[in-house]
Specification:
Layout: H1 6-9, H2 17-34, H3 52-55, E1 68-69, E2 72-73, E3 77-93, E4 107-117, E5 122-131, E6 134-142, E7 146-159, E8 187-191, E9 198-212, E10 217-241, E11 252-277, E12 280-285, E13 288-293, E14 298-302, E15 308-309, E16 312-313, E17 327-331, E18 337-349, E19 354-367, E20 372-385, E21 391-404, E22 417-418, E23 458-459, E24 469-481, E25 494-508, E26 511-517, E27 520-525, E28 528-543, E29 546-558, E30 563-564, E31 571-572, E32 578-588, E33 594-608, E34 613-618, E35 621-627, E36 633-652, E37 665-685, E38 690-706, H4 719-723, E39 725-741, E40 744-757, E41 765-777
Parallel strand pairs: 8-11
Antiparallel strand pairs: 1-2, 3-4, 3-41, 4-5, 5-6, 6-7, 7-9, 9-10, 10-11, 11-12, 11-13, 12-18, 13-18, 14-17, 15-16, 18-19, 19-20, 20-21, 21-24, 22-23, 24-25, 25-28, 26-27, 28-29, 29-32, 30-31, 32-33, 33-34, 33-35, 34-36, 35-36, 36-37, 37-38, 38-39, 39-40, 40-41
């Protein structure tokens, strides 16, 4: 069966070309070590994996391929396998999409795998370097009282820059060096690092250690860490911005883009103690994860004047009488945090047929940037019973809660206060003048109280609202019934299974103040969401060669979370109230040399309410095929097709007045998304020493808003062009492996990679890769 890598399904398989090309080479190393104990002799031609001929024998000079010498068992053994070669790369165009996770420069390739054992203890160490920016080290140790394994890897992640082509840019004024010409319209973009590429280096460490304290108690220590360092692109938007280098006062939305140096380190430690007494198992663990950063600090200028509504000024903002020149504020700040969790797991057999499992946990996340904490906890209880013949059922109950705090200290603009020089102290009402004495609570809702002269009447800290607290409760039961399990007929492969689940999500502080009309303010409370899920299915294993299945899942959600526009009460959501999915499929393998698999589904997601109106249909299809007509020749092929067809009512516009330039307009949008993946490959053992191989993979993706007319009444009439996405990518790989001797082999690979983006041409790129090398073991 063909297994599609995640990079293929994302339409970005070209970020892993070397790893795909190297897969057949690297698999030989593990097979080589595993074959050390096989008997010597002419290598057998196989079709399963690369280098089977090369690794089928042993290279031990003392006693090749035998587990004993003269009837005496060999307690100690050692073996090493190695690969060495080089990549030659020729790249045309952008490297970002064809080499998203690798360095596409000519580079050496090498790896070494060493195994050593004395009969009681074993050590396996693996080191590899696939290009200049990618390497990996892994180890595994097993002994009578201690076991450990770990892995370290590093690789590059190239980031695609956004040139902000959808926004107008300021052009230099030839008559005034250092100044720019005015830009018409409401928007302007400024990129301080035009044409630069961005990339970050990723380093990851994983390790596990375990041992026995007593014959019933053991300990474990899990270690995980990741560091990301490099450069990324960050953007910040300022409304009603006056560019200091542009003549006049256009007051536009100003999008600033620039480079930021980042350095993120995430570390996690999880000590575990586990004890087992009969059927009772008790485990306690304490995961601790910290995130620290040493990023470049960035600020930008905000200098907007007070907004004007109906010729009256809104509450003073930066750029007003309080701060006439504006002020600089930080952005692109990633908060440091520390998470700690206590977990207790218990499981036991209550009777011969009844098993119980439970987990309790409690933890917190400390936000060190804002000095506040999020607490969470819950439980997971399960009861499994096999009392009835051929029936297994499990009931379960889960609960999870999250509570949050407001920051204990204010930062930046949260400490600002303003005085409108009022002579009275009254509550803010809609009729108050929006001149200096008025609050202007709408259409933008601003907490304020009119104060006496010299007394601040607006506090920016009032804009802080309580964070949403969650409580999630889940109750469910699932079962599986095999009614004819004891028979010797075709019916013994019949299985019927089902699941029912009820979920209750409760939210605190999920309240939004919304202006429905001039002078009309309402609260939108999204306190609760209830969900019911039913899943049923039937599978039939007709024989060892064939099986089929049919599955149906339906889900109903009452009042899922929705978004609301605070200035006019417009609502919408991408979350459905009804979801239905039907899947059919099966596998057929009449002989050991043939395998076919197919899965097809029909899914509908919809919501038709006063909050949102949409329908979404998708028809996922996957087909895979493998056939080896002879021991020397094999073919494989795969096809996947994924779609999303969406029709949704979308509202654009903010004003209340119907004849305004951008008044709210609701129309039906038709959106179509399609993604296809083709994969074909073949391998042929020409002789016992020479194997030929080749494969082709093609990916095509297309997303667009179809059959929807966007006239001038829309805020962005060109929105259909902005939302379009169309790309295709091709990967062609061919090569051969040639066995030089029992313990040495050579390999050759050529790969052609191509990525074409019909919308963002700056991502187009192509590459030719050539790999040549030798491998051996001793």
């Amino acid at each position: 069966m063909i297994a599609f890598p995640p990079c293929l399904l994302r339409g970005r398989f070209l970020h892993c070309p070397r790893r795909i090309a190297l897969a057949s080479v690297l698999l030989g190393m593990f097979a080589c070590l595993a074959g050390a104990g096989e008997s010597p002799g002419p290598p057998e031609v196989k079709v399963a994996e690369s280098f089977d001929e090369f690794v089928s024998g042993s290279c031990s000079p003392r006693c090749a391929g035998c587990a004993t010498c003269g009837g005496v068992p060999i307690r100690g053994s050692s073996q090493t396998a190695w690969r060495a070669g080089g990549w030659t790369a020729i790249v045309d165009g952008s490297r970002t999409m064809i080499g998203e996770y690798e360095d596409l420069h000519s580079s050496p390739f090498w790896d070494v795998d060493h195994q050593d054992t004395d009969g009681e203890r074993s050590l396996d160490v693996f080191l590899t370097g696939t290009d200049n920016e990618s390497s990996r080290v892994a180890w595994n140790y097993t002994g009578p009282d201690f076991r450990a394994d770990g892995e370290y890897q590093r690789f590059i992640h190239n980031l695609s820059p956004d040139p902000l082509d959808n926004f107008p840019h300021a052009e230099t004024d030839p008559a005034n060096p250092g100044s720019y010409l005015p830009v018409p319209g409401d928007f302007i973009a400024e990129d301080l690092n035009v044409g630069e590429d961005y990339a970050i280096r990723v380093q990851q460490l994983k390790a596990r250690f375990q041992g026995d304290l007593t014959d019933k108690i053991r300990w474990r220590l899990n270690v995980w860490g990741m560091r990301k360092s490099g450069e990324r692109q960050v953007n910040a938007l300022a409304n009603c911005f006056s560019h200091p280098q542009i003549a006049g006062d256009p007051r536009q939305c100003h999008l600033l883009s620039r480079r930021q140096q980042i350095d993120w380190l995430t570390m996690e430690l999880e000590p575990v103690v586990e004890g087992k007494w009969g059927s009772l198992t008790v485990s306690y663990s304490r995961p601790m994860r910290s995130f620290n950063q040493n990023d470049q600090s960035l600020t930008r200028l905000y200098n907007s004047y007070p907004a004007i509504y109906n010729r009256q000024a809104m509450p003073p903002q930066l750029g007003s009488d309080a701060f006439p020149d504006g002020a600089f504020y930080p952005y692109a700040v990633v908060p440091e945090n520390l998470t700690q969790i206590d977990k207790l797991k218990l499981s036991a057999d209550l009777t011969d047929t009844l098993h119980w499992y439970g987990m309790l946990y409690h933890g917190s996340t400390e936000n060190r940037h804002r000095d506040f904490q999020r607490d969470f906890g819950g439980f997971d209880l399960r009861l499994t019973d096999r009392m009835f013949e051929n029936v297994k059922w499990t009931s379960y109950a889960k609960l999870n809660y999250e509570t949050n705090q407001l920051p204990t200290a204010l930062i930046s603009g949260e400490q600002l206060t303003f005085d409108r020089y009022d002579e009275t102290e009254i509550e803010c009402t809609w009729s108050d003048s929006r001149e200096y004495g008025g609050c202007g609570c709408s259409p933008v809702v601003v907490p304020c109280v009119v104060g006496e002269d010299g007394v601040p009447d607006f506090f920016a800290s009032d804009a802080l609202v309580p964070l949403i607290d969650y409580t999630r409760t889940t109750l469910g039961v699932n079962s599986r019934w095999t009614p004819f399990r004891g028979e010797l007929t075709w019916r013994r492969g019949l299985a019927v299974y089902g699941r029912y689940e009820y979920r209750w999500l409760h939210r605190e502080n999920a309240i939004s103040d919304v202006t429905l009309a001039p002078g009309v303010i309402d609260d939108y409370d999204q306190q609760k969401t209830a969900s019911q899920i039913v899943h049923v299915g039937v599978s039939q294993r007709w024989s060892r060669a064939a099986d089929t299945f049919v599955r149906f899942t339906t889900r109903h959600d009452s009042r899922p979370l929705f978004g609301v526009r605070g200035s006019n009460g417009t609502t919408n959501s991408s979350l459905p109230t009804q979801t239905d999915l039907v899947e059919i499929g099966g596998t057929w393998s009449p002989t050991a040399a043939f395998l076919a698999n197919v899965t097809f589904g029909i899914q509908n997601r919809s919501q038709h309410s006063e909050l949102a109106d949409f329908d979404e249909d998708s028809y996922p299809l996957t087909v895979s095929f493998w056939y080896a007509p002879t021991q020397r020749l094999s073919f494989s092929a795969g096809y996947a097709y994924f779609t999303n067809w969406i029709q949704q009512a979308i509202t654009l516009g903010d004003d209340f007045v119907n004849d305004a330039a951008y008044s709210p307009v609701t129309r039906s949008w038709d959106y179509g998304g399609r993604s296809q993946v083709w994969s074909v490959g073949s391998s042929y053992a020409w002789t016992s020493r020479l194997r030929l191989r080749g494969d082709v993979q093609f990916v095509r993706g297309y997303n667009a808003i179809d059959s929807t007319v966007f006239d001038a009444s829309y805020v962005w009439p060109e929105i259909a062009d902005l939302a379009r996405d169309a790309m295709h990518s091709l990967r062609l790989s061919t090569g051969f492996d040639y066995q030089l001797s029992r313990c040495a082999s050579s390999y050759f690979r050529y790969s052609y990679l191509d990525y074409h983006d019909a919308v963002r041409a700056y991502n187009d790129g192509a590459a030719h890769l050539l790999l040549v090398g030798l491998s051996g073991r001793y």
